[in-house]
Amino acid sequence: MTGQPSTPRRTSGANNHPTCAADKLQSTLIENWKKELIDRINLYDGSNDKFIRTFVPSRARCNFGGNVKNAFADWTPQAGQEVESYDVLLKGLDTLVKPFPEDKRLSFFRSHSHEMKFPFTQFESNHHTSNPNLAALLPGVVSPPDAANPTWSDFSMIIEAKATAADDPFTSNSLESCEEVFRLAVSARSLMHAHGLLTTFVLGIYGDIARIARFDHACAVVSKPFSLKKLEDLKLLQRFFWRFVHPCDSVPFVGCDPTVRKLDSDDEEWLKDQLNAINFPGVDELVLREARCAEVYDDDNEGEDLNTIEPKPYIMFKALDVNGRLFSRATTVWLGIRDNRGAGENDDETVADVTMHDSSSSEDVSQAGTEKAIIRIIKDAWRPLLRPPETEFYNLLNTKIFPEERIGLPTLLGGGDLGEREVRQWEKALYGEPTPSDEIDHQTRLSATKTADLDDSLESAPPSMLVLGQSTSNAIPSHRPTQQTFSWRLTRGNDQWHRERSHMRFVVDTIGRSITDFHSTRELVEAMLDAIRGHKLATEKVGVLHRDISVGNILIVDKADEGSLSRGFIHDFDYSSCAVGVDNDLPTNPSNNSTKRSLDDVVQLVLAANDDADNADNADANLKERAGTYYFLAIQLLEEAGVPHEIFHDLESFYWVLLWVILRHMEHNHRLRQMASADIFRDGSAAVALKLVWLRNESCLVITDNVPLTALHDKFKGLLARSVYRHKGEENELTYEAVEKLFVEALNDNRWPKDDAAKPFVMPN
Hints:
disordered N terminus; 13% strand; alpha+beta
């Protein structure tokens, strides 16, 4: 560590008893959720009527009779025996929605006895199951297709029910309250992943009172409590359900993304035909209920009419990587193909696949109007609003790195910022023109008095904007766009703009699979070497430092892609910035209408202005947002606040990624076996100590029957230890050349085992 003596640091001894490993991992998971939720649950200050008008926009009038006064008169549950009263609760809920049209009516389901798995089958083992109390099915559906084995995609909303008002988790900081909020958040996370939602709702019932919690990827907003025994409040809950199933956009319910839908039978048949035609492996094993049709929009150029930009249709059919955190980028990386069924013979895009050294030609024109599908990578993520869009970094890579030298890096083909697009549509409808990009002020955005007449521009206004009774009003609609979050600004004030997120979706050319799904350990090492070479290219030729090296951000290129120069590559440039000491032409970073500063300066100013930044837990969360994936961060970045993120920090992250994969997906001699990762990779104050303990441990980690990989790991660990414990002023040996040499030497060894594929990691019960 720069500026530190080589004297060993004193750390608490690690407990290596195998029986403690599962408990440690479980404790880590709970602690992660606690840190994710802290200071991200906002209690709404306004009336419940305003809460519904703001967060459940709808153009449909709720004006019907029906006696709902006694809907929950018989709901008198006993603590610990709520299940026995669920029938009464369900009857009351049915009473509220009985006047709804059949195709919009919600049916309610007893989900408490079902162990619900994570929505993506491939990643089920990474997450615990959950059993929400009750669930609302999709509008118009009276029973799940398989009532004995329901999935999250069968549900539109979750309902948690407890016996008394004292169970309300939003009035206490007790452990029990934290656990209940945790349950609500897990359900919200699962619903959002299952449907690709922009927002979701969870109804909490606590004796005679209830609350509505609205979640997005920035925070949760919770209504004031209302009574289940007062007619006025029951009508409010009825209006909530009515508006929920009558969204402004042509989607099933409020929160659905209008640019995404599930596949129907025709889509599935066409997709299978396309994949079989190119001999894609495992077509029959694809879980197509998880697949989605998606629209990909390119970013508009300054002055371009937003309404003339046509989306490019894709089918995203297999998730390669899923970020399971709720309040996060929520990155999902998909395999997908262009849906060219609507392409006519005279379509401008019916041309052959091209690759040119020109960012303007990096469009996915490879399969529109052609016969065979080409597999692409599609990324869906929610960027922090204070960071530049990831596509800007890809455009720089496209411009400065020639195809013949492009190793370990993908090429951007299209797509952009859906959130920014929707906000600009609102601005055009409200003010006549979108705000010029160099004048954007997120702190006051969409807050000015309306100057355009919406009645004269109804065709150009986004559907989400035109809610009941507001098309001719001078007031700005109380709600806001949903492809970009406004929940912090609507609840805590406009000065919280920096905590908002914007929805990105874009396409890159290179396809791959997770490095935890390697077919052989040699393939894993080859992929990591090319990823390191790609990192070097981006840094030295473009001046872009990745800053988020993690297991999810390195992919293996399948051998079927014979045209690729790479065996692996890095992606996910969300947290990239300019590399220290390297010239670059990076775009100006958003400073919210202030003088231009470096991005890290902006982030540090925002965090310094945050009243909660002194809270240790919140600081950990901010560190994750600032510098990348926590488990794989360099020790110095974890230990010393304000340290500039440099190249050697990312090289250290490559080591922690390699160690993670070894411990979780290979046979080795660590006494904790697969649970060893919980003894090294931790959150909070233990994160630094346990990594240092590991580096000081001189015993050799032996990968079973794998001499080359054992040697590579041992040498890489030694190189890192010398870097971390070097004297002040001593040269840092952790360089591209040194790391690349270790990998090349290992790959030149002829003793690599054959067919030693990754072993699945199983989450402890």
